[in-house]
Amino acid sequence: MTTIKLNNGHEMPVIGLGVWRMDKKDIKDLIFSAIKLGYRHFDCAADYQNEAEVGEALAEAFQSGLVKRDDLFITTKANHGHVLEACKDSLKKLRLDYLDLYLVHFPVATKHTGVGTTGSALDEDGVLEIDTTISLETTWHAMEDLVSKGLVRSIGISNYDIFLTRDCLAYSKIKPAVNQIETHPYFQRESLVKFCQKHSIVVTAHTPLGGAAANHEWFGTVSCLDDSVLKGLAEKYKRTVAQVVLRWGLQRDTVVIPKTSKTERLEENIQVFDFELEKEDVELIKSIDRKYRTNQPAVFWGVDLYA
Length: 307
What we know:
This protein has 307 residues and is of the alpha/beta class.
């Protein structure tokens, strides 16, 4: 698996498998299949509420000799400001001694509801309970402590815009290694991507295929996979539209973490290293940007954090 070097010297595989919205009963088979196909990067989060199932699968993969711990790159994310406790809880559930990458999931601390609880607390009006006593700077310094304690190799941010990323660079002792954001052909965010890369922050693209059917079902959004320009390029390169989109993401020097629950898609999504998009086609894809966000957490949090 091709890797990209982080600003602390660690290597991160450029394709990973995201486990958001994976059914718990399917996780073991999907992770085993992914490892056999060559995946070495798995993207998790406390908020996905399936870390224990991922941990069970990983433990069995290590025990059976399918793969070694050092061969894998495991990411998970904190969703409240009690960072040390949250990290230890994730490590316990994932059955790991350390994380390769730990991210601040959103640039906001949610109300803490007890040790080991990972759901997002809502108030009586169904609006996300935000803890206004914990600053992002305080959270970040707690993230830095995890590195010195040996619990985490790299730390990063997620869903941060340019302003918040700039602030993090200003107050950090350990610079964020990664900013994980939604980006795909319909939501290219070129300024944010370039800003991060200029400051040696690797961009990981979540929702790199625009969410496809799952986001249409949850958020009513449109997928770039149905775009006529991308379909034309897929025909030109004799690839699927998804492969063209993932290849485009790699050629932007971003890491891509497509999520799928289908074994055939796992295989398809990783077969993107044996072709390259021509410069004119990269420019063509640039022209279809709609500045169109498909991941809309306001649907279940009752508040638009991007407002």
